[in-house]
Design goal:
Number of helices: 5
InterPro entries: PP2-like (IPR025886), PP2-like/Lectin (IPR052147)
Region (Disordered): 1-52
Structural class: alpha+beta
CATH architecture of the domain at 106-260: Sandwich
Protein name: Galactose-binding like
Order of helices and strands: HHHHHEEEEEEEEEEEEEEE
CATH class of the domain at 106-260: Mainly Beta
Helix content: 10-25%
GO molecular function, one term: carbohydrate binding
CATH superfamily of the domain at 106-260: Galactose-binding domain-like
Distance between the termini: 73 Å
Biased composition (Polar residues): 1-24, 41-52
Number of strands: 15
Amino acid sequence: MGSGLSQDQDLKQNQELSNTSPQGHHSDAAVLNEEPRKIMPQSSKSTETNKTMEAARVLRFPHNYEEILKEADSSVDRSSMNKLYDQLYTGVYLNQKRKKYWVDKKSNGNCFMLYARDLLITWAENNRFWHWPLVQESSDVLLPAAELLDVCWLEIHGRFNTTMLSPGLIYEVVFIVMLKDPAYGWENPVNLRLILPDGSRQGHTENMVEKPREKWIEIPAGEFMTSADQKNGEIEFSLYEYEGGNWKKGLVIKGAVLRPKA
């Protein structure tokens, strides 16, 4: 009779072991038939490969990215998730460089820069009051900024639809500005305001006299939580000062950023 299991039974048992091993890991079943001294520890290279595969599994497509990229100024390579993310981490220009879209690595949240040309600036097209110099955005990109020449009525507004923002995150809105040297007329603080889709408002003032000169700085307008159940709408954010009556000079507006709060 032999030792209990027939040759056919042995073959069937080995086939069952092979069938239970996960796809892509055929060596697990084969190891059962190897002598212990032949089982080698996993190499560091293999470990790194597994970590890379695990990281790839964690990645998910950004919220509403296909709709956003319809406005891209140039084509985006979507042949693989890694290639897509390489471009989105760097950033993609939209609407003839009026906006920039990128993905925050930490939160996987959508971020946007609305450049000065995408903001509503009172008297912006009157060259007595505003000038539009080109500023360095990157090593190979120059974009127009709005430089205040002389005005007593300062009023800047931006609007954005929150459907393009990633849900369930705390977002902040900040103006990116520079005060040139010399600059004058800033004795009265400027007002910052954020109006949310439900009509609620946030507001505060910033003392510009205390801000550094000749460097880009951030002036926060407010923050809010994006809705996880997709109840979204338009937000409006503003920077203004016109009640003091002072003539002002030397403010340069690069744009406004919407991004997940760190």
